[in-house]
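Supplementary Note 3. Input sequence used for the single-chain structure prediction.
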Amino acid sequence: MNLISLLQYGLFVLVVSACVKPVGLYLTHVFNRERTWLDPVLGPVEGWIYRLAAIDPDREMDWQRYAAAFVLYGLLGILFISVLLMLQPLGQAPDPHHQPGPFSFLLALNTAISFATTTTWQAYSGESDLSYLSQSLALTSQNFLAGGAGLAVGIAFIRGFSRGGCETIGNFWVDLTRSILWVLLPVSLIGALLLVWQGVPQNVSPYVPVRTLAGVAQILPQGPVASLEFIKNLGTNGGGYFAANGAHPYANPTALTNLLGVFAIVVIPAALTYTYGRMARRPAHGWMLYGVMLLLFCTGLGLYDHCERAGNPRIVVLGVASSSGPAQAGGNMEGKETRFGIAASVLTEVAASNGATGSANASVDSNSPLGGGVLLTNMLLGEAIFGGLGTGLYSMVLSALLAVFITGLMIGRTPEYLGKTLGPDEARLIGLYTIIAPLVILTLSSVALVTGGGRAGLSTNSGAHGLTSILFAYASCFANNGMSFGGMSVATPFYHVTTAIAMLAGRFGLALPALALAGHFARQGHRPVSSGTLPTDGMMFALSLVGVLLMVGGLSYLPAFVMGPLVEHLQLWR
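The predicted structure, written as discrete structure tokens, is reproduced below.
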């Protein structure tokens, strides 16, 4: 890691850390329905929405009704997007250079599930296969709607710890409305304008035929790009307007747009730790959770940077210099944009893999084996490092609950967490939450490896790299991330179906146990702190939490990791 990279990483961490408290405080005011500076403008709009939808904002839901509303809302989004994509030619403007056809049923369903679950898994090329109407009405809008729903679930989860003797955890429709109106829309409007200022297109113009300096004919895509590109990061969605995602110069033209995108991925999930601590009346615990996230994030940055700067020994033995110098960046620059280099690519990929946002600005298929392994590990840790809107917070808290349970058993302390008792029902829900990810990811990966339909996707990747590609795909879909290895062909019925299963399990299979836990804890009273209560705010518990995250991840995925990234690394360096 050179000095420039270190300064870039350090500046980013300082900026995010400085925003945790003010953004977290703003989120607290929004979801406690306390006054904010946007109320005079948005309050009347909110009231109009409730009247139009016949919603009583003062009528709250228990966790079962909240979960049912969340699932129903997701299914309606899937239905809407699927129909729109299958009827795509009906809404097209005449353009001789851009006339995408209708999606097949399986591709439309897979795409709809991916956007409704904030995965934005793309088995298509956006600029070629989608009309302006589909890009805007189906995909851009769903980035707001699905991202808002995830944030609503995270807030409902927080309420479970802030309340006592209460049967309800909020109203899903109110939380959803406030997530979109007070958080996602105003920030995205500012962010999109900044992208337009930096050169990102925002129009409905026809595609432009040009001739390059080499005399080759080329079609330059146009469209409402800026409005999608910012919310895809802020809503932790990640699916780009273009197939090349953040590596495309129209989507991400400058170092400033790249930094804005990475900041948008991290800032709200990071700030939710402060919101959690404040609403639960344990601010020190919220800062402890942020510290653990930041420690793991910085560790991933350092490891990934080291792996990519090490270069490729197979190229070095051919006499090609891989060290940095005046004429070259050095390290493994395959698949990376020269305008970003290793540092900006490392920062983006680590943030994206941690933040449930597959908004890549480089080809992850071209990473070094262990570099790709770092990104894979980030996703296999269960979105606990920042994660998606809402999902990252409750993933980390569920890990903290597991740490409380294990540590309490080891030292004979009462299994309590923030004044809430961990009884048999809560322990079963924590156990269910813990085993869902390895059960789904490893089962689907195994099926892909032993069936012809699964192996057919390994069009260019084989051996250990092929195994990593498959494991990475299902880990990405389950984490609702969307990253993938470009050398793997997933536009097949087999992968349409199996990745859809992983996306649905990652979205609803984790949210429902989290909401159930919130309901259980909301019904409990707050037990006072005693000499038998395990402290959960200090360094010792933070280390226990890190240990639990690594232990659960290692026990679940270490054999698969060894056979994939580690074996490939040994083959490369032998």
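The chain is about 65% helix and 0% strand. Residues 444 and 498 are 7 Å apart (CA to CA).
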